[in-house]
Design goal:
The chain is mainly α. The chain has five helices and no strands. It starts with a helix and ends in a 28-residue tail after the last helix.
């Protein structure tokens, strides 16, 4: 399934931490739309929004791993550079900080928990997130 943000992510030309910051900023712009979909009483739209959120985070996770490996930094070093205050505006940091509670509210576990939908697959092993706010 192709989501609108995929083409935008694919056009990001920066590399390293700058690439990840740009992609996170693009993902933040999708939050209001996806939140509205989650609030809808339309079950197919709700399920699609949950899948899309997971797809965004999985894509970010892949990009973070790739950028970190190319940089030669450890997880801790890369995360420290990524979290520098100048990378995000106060509004963007607030949006990032609100994500864990929003995801928990809708039962979306990014790191191994079930989707809690009829089509949910067997949960994978849990692991810590690569990017922490």
């Amino acid at each position: 399934m192709e989501y609108p943000w995929v083409a935008v992510f694919d056009r990001v030309t920066s590399t390293g931490v700058a690439r990840i910051v740009e992609m996170i900023k693009l993902a933040i712009k999708e939050i209001p739309r996806l939140h509205n979909e989650l609030l809808s009483n339309n079950n197919p739209r709700y399920i699609k929004a949950r899948r899309e959120i997971l797809a965004i985070f999985y894509r970010l996770d892949e990009e973070i791993l790739k950028a970190r490996d190319e940089s030669g930094m450890s997880d801790l070093e890369f995360n420290k550079v990524l979290r520098q205050p100048e990378n995000f505006t106060p509004e963007e940091r607030d949006a990032l900080k609100s994500l864990p509670s929003l995801l928990k509210l809708y039962g979306i576990d990014l790191f191994g928990g079930p989707l809690k939908s009829p089509e949910a697959k067997k949960p994978k092993r849990k692991r810590p997130p690569r990017f922490k706010v």
